[in-house]
Amino acid sequence: MESLTSNQKVTQSPLFKFLVLEFICLTLMIADKNHQLAQPVRNTLSLAVIPLIKIIEWPQELFDITQVALSRQASLIEENTRLKEQLLDARFKVQQNVTLAAENERLRAMLNASGNSPLATSVAFVSNINQHQKRQHIIIDQGSSSKVFTGQAVLNLEGVIGQVDVVSQTFSHVILITDTEHALPVEILRTGLRTIAYGDGQKLSLTEIPTSADIQPGDVVVTSGFGNRFPRGLQVATIESTAVSPDRTFQTAVAAPLARIDRLSEVFLVWPGE
């Protein structure tokens, strides 16, 4: 009994079990090497494990695909941004060329007009515009060093703009004919009617015209030459509308300046003749 009990202890010990399992493993390895006994089992297990491997590899593949897509998208965004910048630069250069061509055309026209005009004129460039409801002024790049003087008439190819109001050494302020503090002696070209045109902030107002006077929308208003500020016959505005006062003692008219005062870039300075 004691001997049997001793054998049971030996067979149940961990070392004995390990040696038995090691012997079985070695036997199976040798048999498999010589006769490929476990190959069908391995093939079956390989086929069964493939879906598991795919599931395990799927997050990594998804990550790689996402990374490639993001990289391509970033590359496309960068390329799109670069192309937009190139397009903007090209458009800016085209606009510059168009602006320069238009400016050259205007300068040629102004120089030709200056050469053909009986008035003594010079060209000045507008450096700033100050226009709001009441005050209508611009600043030009010529001053007393260019012999500009206060009250000097200023016009462009379309018509009268205003007159020099303040003169400094290198620049001058010009009060526009639409300024509420400006008054200009004018006459109606068609009839010779003479009156005063006052600025109202945007257009010209002709007030206290006799009710018997012939004045109609579309009539051209020119300078009358009174006051010795503006030569006679310079175009100023066109009559837009007329109205009779409530007591019917006089009529008024509203005129739109011929010069595009909101788009000034170059102007004429008019010099008095001999």
Brief write-up:
This protein has helices at 2-12, 14-35, 39-116; strands at 120-131, 136-140, 153-155, 160-167, 172-176, 183-188, 194-199, 204-209, 220-223, 235-244, 251-257, 266-271.
Short key terms for the protein model shown above:
Thrombin, subunit H; 6-stranded antiparallel β-barrel; 6-stranded antiparallel beta barrel; 12 strands; 41% helix; 3 helices; Cell shape-determining protein MreC; alpha+beta; 274 residues; Cell/Rod_1
Give a description of the structure.
The chain has a six-stranded antiparallel β-barrel with strand order 1-2-5-4-3-12. Strands 6-7-8-11-10-9 form a six-stranded antiparallel beta barrel. It is built from three helices and twelve strands; from the N terminus they run H-H-H-E-E-E-E-E-E-E-E-E-E-E-E. The mean pLDDT is 79. With 274 residues, it is of the alpha+beta class. It has helices at residues 2-12, 14-35, 39-116; strands spanning 120-131, 136-140, 153-155, 160-167, 172-176, 183-188, 194-199, 204-209, 220-223, 235-244, 251-257, 266-271. Strand 3 and strand 4 form a beta hairpin.
What percentage of residues falls in helices of 4 or more residues?
Answer: 40-55%
Q: What's the CATH class label of the domain at 120-271?
A: Mainly Beta
SS summary, helix count:
3
Tell me the strand percentage band: 25-35%
Give the N-terminus to C-terminus distance in angstroms. Answer: 155 Å
Mean pLDDT metric: 79
Low-confidence regions? none
Largest sheet: 6 strands, antiparallel, barrel
CATH superfamily of the domain at 120-271: Rod shape-determining protein MreC, domain 2
Strand order of the largest sheet: 1-2-5-4-3-12
Number of strands: 12
* Shape by Cα distribution: rod-shaped
Gyration radius from CA atoms, angstroms: 48 Å
The structural class is: alpha+beta
| Helix and strand run | HHHEEEEEEEEEEEE
The fold-level CATH name of the domain at 120-271 is: Thrombin, subunit H
- CATH architectural label of the domain at 120-271: Beta Barrel
